[in-house]
Amino acid sequence: MIRVGIGGWTYEPWRGSFYPDGLKHAEELRYASRRLTTIEINGTFYRAQSAASFKKWRDETPDDFVFSVKGHRAIVNSRKLAEAGEKIDWFFKSGVLELGEKLGPVLWQLAPFKKFDREDLAGFLGLLPRAANGRALMHVLEVRHESFLVPDCIALLRAHNVAVVHADSDDYPMIADVTADFVYGRLQRTVEDIETGYSTADLDLWAKRARLWAIGGTPEDLNRIDKNAAAKAKRPVFIYMIAGAKTRAPAAAQALIERVKV
Fold first, then answer.
1. In this structure, what are the phi and psi dihedrals at residue 79, rounded to the nearest 5 degrees?
2. What is the mean pLDDT of residues 35-43?
3. How far is the C-alpha of 146 from the C-alpha of 209, rounded, in Å?
4. How many CB atoms lie within 10 A of CB 245?
5. Alpha-carbon distance 139 to 163, whole Å?
6. How confident is the model at residue 97 (pLDDT cuts 50, 70, 90)?
7. In sequence order, what are the residues at sequence separation of 6 or more whose Cβ sits closer than 8 angstroms to the Cβ of residue 179?
8. In contact, 66 and 104? CB cutoff 8 Å
9. Distance between CA 163 and CA 183 in Å, rounded?
10. Where would a tag sit more exposed on the chain, N or C end, judged by fewer CB atoms within 10 A?
């Protein structure tokens, strides 16, 4: 129920720290996917990836591995999100669905200057496909402007069963409300001078929060916009070590995985 990973798998400083010396670059995904339980594919934000690439990534990873995929910037940077229907259709036809059962949440990351517009957001959420190839799709929205910190936003996301990113960040607002039947966290405070990125105490705390989310609870130490708790039900939890001291992300993810093992 709890998956922990990193953003991408190609990063030069990980060679010799996370990846063993001499490991072929072509083997890095295979290596990472056997030490983590999920990876967030970030390259899809910048350019379309081929169907062949998605198939290759699917086949290189273990049967129980899951990817999240970041939606293309042409969609989330549209002046009007509610008018991005054709771009959304294009994105899902570009090859993403070749991940098959390994396709997890699709992350829609808004620009820091994008402000909350109830009508526009409602239109966008209504455009997101709910299923493809006979299986449900999961969507998560990352908001990075404080105007989204309102009950109206939470209600809209819940009505569409779209998760909101819980960001542990110095730069972006934190929303701890559970708005979907899964939880998605992006932890962005890893530091270089701690081998595991986060301190032992912080890792223990995040493990406690993740386990609580997974059984249907809501951590009381995280402030919510809507004080009404979400429906209590078991739910998948996805946590990614993103940004901060990126060199430490794999170690942080592995340390958290050890703490949330059943």
1. -60, -40
2. 97
3. 23
4. 18
5. 6
6. very high
7. 154, 157, 158, 161, 162, 163, 164, 230
8. yes
9. 6
10. C
Hey, which residues does 131 pair with through a beta bridge? Answer: 136
Positive or negative, the Cα torsion across 257, 237, 88, 73? negative
Amino acid at 123: G
Q: pLDDT digit string (tens) for 160-185?
A: 999 999 999 999 999 999 999 999 99
Contact indicator for 177, 185 with CB cutoff of 8 Å: no
- The structure tokens listed for 27 are 């083997």
Tokens, residue 77: 């940077």
CA dist 60 and 29 (Å) reads 7
State which residues form the domain around 43. 2-260
Angstrom CA distances, 247 to 5, 34, 73, stand at 13, 18, 25
| Strand, helix or coil for residue 221 | coil
What's the rounded Cα separation, in Å, for the pair 86 and 35?
37
Q: What is the CATH number of the domain that holds 159?
A: 3.20.20.410
Instruction: Write the single-letter amino acid at 68.
Output: S
Domain count, the chain: 1
Angle between helices 249-260 and 200-214 (to 10 degrees): 50
The single residue listed with the structure tokens 């607002």 is: 173
Cβ atoms of 166 and 142 within 8 Å: the answer is no
Q: In Å, how far are 28, 31, 41, 213, 238 from 60, measured between CA atoms?
A: 10, 9, 14, 30, 21
Report which secondary-structure segment, H or E, holds 53: helix 51-60
**What pLDDT does 230 receive?**
66
Q: What length is written for the chain?
A: 262
Give yes or no for a contact between 187 and 239, defined as CB atoms under 8 angstroms apart.
yes
Q: Do the Cβ atoms of 196 and 178 come closer than 8 Å?
A: no
pLDDT at 229: 66
